[in-house]
Amino acid sequence: NQSGCVTSSTYKSMNLTGSGSETGLTASNFNTAISSGTNFEFWDATGARHFISGDVDLAVGNVKSGTNLFGVAGQYPSASYPLASNTGVNDLTTFITQLTTDGNFEYFDSAGAKYTGSGDSDLVNGNIKNLISIENLSLTGSHTPTLNCPAGYIKVPGDSAYGTGDFCVMKYEAKNVSAIATSQAASTPWVSISQTGSITACRALGTGYDLISNPQWMTIGANAAGINGNWTGGTSGSGSLFAGHNDNSPVSPCAASSNDSFFYVETTCSAVGSGDSTEQRRTLTLSNSNVIWDLSGNVSEWVNYKNIADKPGATAAYYEYTALTGTSTTALKDLVPTNAVKGFWSDAWNSAEWIGNFYPGTNGGGGGLVRGGSWSEGSSAGVFNANLYFSPTAYNTEIGVRCSANPILVP
Q1: Is residue 107 very low, low, confident or very high in pLDDT (cuts 50, 70, 90)?
Q2: pTM over cut 0.90
Q3: Phi and psi dihedrals of 125, rounded to 5?
Q4: Where does residue 57 rank: exposed (0-12), middle (13-18), buried (19+ CB within 10 A)?
């Protein structure tokens, strides 16, 4: 060393004799060198030479996403650098959409373990119980099970005023088909059957079947009376309520028609769509658009109700409902809608509106309830016609049967 060039008398030495062909490590190539597959050399503070190889594994696809190592910004895992066990199946990213759409997907837990699943397009509001909210899927259920009825029966909306839920009832008066009570349009109604026999015949159809009850009859009648289209004047209370075949022409009960538009009968009992007095129409339409035949007229029908000792009126005579007072056993509202129960109803309505009359008979006899009136009863017939004259074991050629049934729940 040349004297006087530096003030220190001790100098570090660098042995450059070992310098090779390797790339020298500098500040500008540091990041590139350590992530390459080539060798590079460098010297330490004592002047000793070192050389080492870079490693190509120090790459974006091998560094955790969000981590930066010597200028290498990690991208693992990502769409470009998926987890090693990735199969190429769609990743679970749009959670709600993929869970509610048919198709497979895969996802990984925090430990890197892979799972697979599949969406289901049935996962929609209409398949979830009404008003049940699955908030994390943004779903609110709208499904309500349907109540179906047996063939030949119609569904009737329940009415809390009469303590009824939805139920099924024969669309037609029952026909005797090989001693089986059958709801069909063809043939004349099954008559000359007692109330007791009617109960037996209906229950023989199976579990949930029975002779129509008085609350069920009132539910149907009140529903029909509140429908404008069931009145001759086109508005509830205008003109008269359709009363069915009650004019004794023809002098017999008639079959119904499978065509609900053929709701009148000719003198030959042929079903026709016109040509008779309007009030003789044999069909009534309910609020759910279902049609029922001969609830009034054609033949009277047994109802599953008895009152032998406490009859309203209790005489062998017809009453207008405007002149009748109920008893503790049979209230007036059990026989006819009242304004207190149904706001549309006028307590002044009587046989002039073809609603029907009431015949109690005397106390101590009869007691089986018959409703609707028959083909021969004229203005006494009507949807709310009621008769307690006959014994439950009696039968008559003008009294038939109509069964009801519990609805079949369809999920």
Answers
A1: confident
A2: no
A3: -55, -40
A4: exposed
pLDDT tens digit sequence for 38-68: 887 777 777 788 778 778 888 888 888 888 8
- Pull the structure tokens for residue 57: 């594994």
Q: How far apart are CA 248 and CA 267, in angstroms?
A: 9
Asked if omega into 77 is within 30° of 0 (cis), the reply is yes
- The one-letter amino acid code at 256 reads A
CA distance 370 to 388: 7
For residue 311, give both structure tokens. 């009859």
Asked if the model's pLDDT at residue 375 lies above 80, the reply is: yes
DSSP 406: P
Cis? peptide before 250, omega within 30° of 0: yes
Contact assessment for residue 71 and residue 31, using Cβ atoms and an 8 Å cutoff: yes
Structure tokens at 362: 């005397």
> What pLDDT, in 10s, does the model give residues 61-101?
888 888 888 888 988 877 787 766 666 677 777 777 877 88
Is the sign of the CA dihedral 244, 158, 194, 181 positive or negative? Answer: positive
Structure tokens at 45: 């503070």
Q: Looking at the DSSP assignment, which residues form a beta bridge with residue 292?
A: 284
Asked if residue 367 has pLDDT above 70, the reply is: yes
Cα 116 to Cα 103, 105, 110, 119: the distances in Å are 11, 6, 15, 10
The span from the CA of 283 to the CA of 286, in Å, is 10
pLDDT at 1: 45
Report which of 159, 163, 183 is spatially closest to residue 173, judged by C-alpha positions. Answer: 183
User: Which of 271, 288, 268, 245 has the alpha carbon at shortest distance from 375?
Assistant: 245
Residue type for position 231: W
- DSSP codes of every residue in 234-273: SSTTSS-B---S-S-SSSS-----SSTT--EE-TT--EES
- Tell me if residue 66 falls in helix, strand or coil: coil
Query: What pLDDT score does 213 carry?
Result: 98
375 close to 248: Cβ distance less than 8 angstroms? yes
Per-chain mean pLDDT for the chain: 89
pLDDT of residue 7: 56
